[in-house]
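User: I'll paste a sequence; please echo it back and then give the predicted structure.

Assistant: Echoing your sequence first, then the prediction.
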Amino acid sequence: MNRILVLTGDMIGDRMAGPAIRAFETAQVLAEKHRVTLSCPQVTGMIPPHHSNMDISSFGAEPRWSELKSYDAVIVPGSMHIDAHFDTPLLVDLYDPFILSSLARTDKTPEKQVEELESLNRNLARGDFFVCASERQRDFWIGMLAAAGRVNTIQFKSDSYLLSLIQIAPFGIPSCLPTDHIDNQSDDSHDIRMVWGGGIWDWFDPLTPIRAVSALNRSGRNVSLHFMGSGHPNPNMTRMTMVERARTLAADLQLLDKHVFFHDWIPYIERGRMLNSATLAVSAHYPHLETHFSFRTRILDYIWARLPFVCTQGDYFADLATSRQTGIAIPPEDVVAFVKAVEKLIDDKDFYSECKSNLDRTAHDMTWQKTLEPVITFCDSPGRAVDTVRSPLNRQTDDGIFIGGCENAVESAGEIIGSGIEQSIETAAGALCRIDLKLATFQRDNTGYGLFELLDKTGEIRVRIPFDLATVADNHWYPFRFGPIPSGDSARWTIRLKCPVSKPANAVTIWTDNTIPDHQYRLNGVRQPGSINYRIFSKSYPGSETPLHWRSKLCLKIPFLKKQ
């Protein structure tokens, strides 16, 4: 039995979106053979029933990366920014091509999209094994992995089709059918009840189904449409503009709360009740890049409930609807075609019955136990990738060899003004060439300049690097590179960061970990418990036969420099 850590950036609780559901169900399946910890930023509401071998915890702002070493394998989503150096086998889940859906989001600035791409590239460089949702996605991700240097001769000689690097592990469904209970809690007395599973994201098209509902009711049909998730279970998620556009259209067509209903978010364990109460399901989107590579998790629920569906052409499940006759795929934004598809499912009983039978056969191939087989195999015998000797992590910016530091960002220190912030460290054998500091600038309009200084044990400044505070990104590592400095057999150093012209309420701060016992740093002349966030990089030095290393227990026991 291995110890497996499953991380998600989404909330775990009674109401969960797709990323949280996938992490929860992955942990459930793995818990049948292993001891699993599922960790998320925050646990909200009542947690669904889960396996006894599965623990659920919250990590707050970000995971404690130092704790990853205690697990036999770690699973992270492709969007999670890994700021850590660890040797634990890492599986990166790429089922969601989030960098494509971000293109359609109105709340994503170009700067945020670049930040997400940087996080993804870091995961592609570090991951030992990758999974995605379809063959189409696998082609996409192999291109990304090639750009990251992971499609190399070492991988190719080991496995010419790269199955040891990336495999398909789609979103799944429960092995048991939804409860037979029918939803009688609403006042919906319509003859035909349609459901829209999941949220209303900016890259979806809820407007076409709403217009189709209007046309169907004008023609004498008695039809309703229920959106199962107009909000989002994660309170930190920005509300998307498409939700309000859909509500406004429903109100303008005099359908709101009469034929079109917006539910906040149906609890995960209760979603089967609404699905069982429906006649058919719908999913609509616009024609763009995200559609081509998507794998609509909401349609998995339709398959689970054996619910025939109408969907837009252009994605995986549109092809499935056509090839396996599980529903009807129509052109994008075509209200007339949408109406005809609904009428076909309503009026043609034989066709509807055949769709349900085909859904039943399809469902047996899509249970979580089957879709996650590559994940199970990796966790049964986790190991590092065959090209572990590849370039250092994040090779675009990494210089030298990472030899240690403190990477857990627990809280930020106070503002760096006055004499600044400083901490002593000790290294041995080799040549220092780079030190990273993790800086924070949240809601500050930083102006002026900062000074990074590295002082030896005599107090002499060996490195002095000025930098523009306006270029510092919030909650990011800022690398300070310098020519290799041989440390000899052993050397003590002091890291100091000053911001000479900064003012209170508008100054940069630095991330710290105050949980490290017997460690201290000095902020603006005042001793503080814990350690600043820093990373040390070194290069081998001619004549040194001792392996590069870093001594952490001594790093903060030496006297601080006097204020200047």
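Confidence is low (pLDDT under 50) at residues 391-397, 542-548, 552-564. The CA atoms of residues 176 and 304 lie 8 Å apart.
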